[in-house]
Design a protein that fits this description.
The chain is of the alpha+beta class. It has three helices and four strands; from the N terminus they run βαββαβα.
């Protein structure tokens, strides 16, 4: 069996933040800038609380079967909830999307490299 890599994105909106919570998020904003975004096992959080209350977590997970993406998505959502509730941040509209990288189409460069390898 092959090992599949999944990329899970969990999106939501901060809700009911206190002034202190908003200030804490603003103070840590540089660490959560979109330019630092990455799909990681622990999850990478990005937001721009000064512009809008939306946030995005990016997770990377693996599985053996195509169906494992469902469990990986549930783990990612649970981790996002735990991070938010552990810090007392209210949130709403939590939704996720997941991609199995073994099913992703090859880019033009990857197709060229594959043809060169076959030649």
């Amino acid at each position: 069996m092959s090992n599949r890599t999944f990329r899970i994105t969990v999106r939501g909106v901060f809700d009911g933040l206190t002034d202190d919570q908003r200030a804490a998020l603003l103070a840590d904003a540089a660490d959560h800038d979109v330019l630092r975004a990455a799909f990681t096992r622990e999850g990478s959080l990005t937001y721009d609380i000064a512009a809008r209350s939306a946030f995005v977590f990016r997770f990377s997970d693996t599985g053996e079967e195509e169906e494992d993406i469902l469990e990986a998505t549930e783990r990612a959502e649970a981790a996002a909830r735990a991070w938010l509730t552990g810090r007392g941040y209210g949130f709403r509209n939590l939704r996720s999307s997941a991609e199995d990288l073994s099913q992703a189409p090859l880019s033009k460069r990857q197709r060229r490299a594959a043809r060169a390898a076959d030649a």
